[in-house]
Amino acid sequence: xxxxxDPVVNSFRPKKWITTPSLxxxxxPRVASSKLGADMGETVVITILVENTVHARGLLAEHGLSFxxxxxxxxxxxxxxxxxxxxxxxxxxxxxxxGAEAIVLSHGHNDHTGGLKAAHQAAPQARLFxxxxxxxxxxxxxxxxxxxxxxxxxxxxxxxxxxxKAVVRTRKPTEVLDGIFVTGEIPRQNTFEDTGGPFFLDxxxxxxxxxxDDQALFFDTxxxxxxxxxxxxxxxxxxxxxxxxxxDGRPIxxxxxxxxxxxxxxxxxxxxxxxxxRWDIQQFAPGHCTGLLTLxxxxxxxxxxxxxxxVGTSWVFPR
Length: 319
Ligand SMILES: [Fe+2]
Ligand SMILES: [Fe+2]
Hints:
Number of domains: 1
Largest sheet: 7 strands, mixed
Bound molecules: fe (ii) ion
Number of strands: 18
Helix content: 10-25%
Number of helices: 8
Shape: globular
CATH architecture: 4-Layer Sandwich
Structural class: alpha/beta
CATH topology: Metallo-beta-lactamase, Chain A
Distance between the termini: 40 Å
């Protein structure tokens, strides 16, 4: 595993952020309203390149996640799946990856980072956005007592090391490209959410992995915020709370991606659904690690507001 990267490099510039005068004591940077709306009239087209499910001929699925975002004439990848499968799906979907300007990693688990080498080869000019903790060794304890390594593989870590000058460390909120932001480290503010599983930093399962590397992508639209989650290990409520604090309370319109709620307690589910109702979220596309029973619960709780999160699904958001 490679850990010897340059010191923190971050595109974050204070002028891109404001602090609301009335909340001047807050230590939370805020996304300037002028940045949130970036070029009005542009659209953001989100396409799922990798997910656990597929319903279309010629496309393929694997356990993992990767989103392609077309932002006007510009593009980026949010996660890369667990292999180079996304290349096949991108070709079938006629999405060119050559011009992608950014590859953002939601966290270090290998079902989100395994395609990084192939992604970087496809878009060698792309900057790589990740939290430093994504490079840590990561393990999961299985019910039978065995342990599996689920951290970034050697090829992905080497890719990051070789592309060190293009690496942007994202401990803090960072603009990836025009009006598309990554949260950086997400504060864990409530007591009912956890990382969603028996995750550890060592093979002996002695040190719990807080998954500080977990981060979400977000942007604003006239109808509210669109938030993309990789696995949601910080907790989806913590994540959405933070995004709202960063954006001065903009409404949350859509959430897409992995919520990692398959082991959630009834209490956690109840509080999560209550928070979704409070925010009056208009559109859900939960998938990947969300869990089948949780998917059923969400589709039942929010009729008409849920859509499949499968390979080839795409959404167009106005800005
Ligand atoms: Fe995952
Ligand atoms: Fe994960």
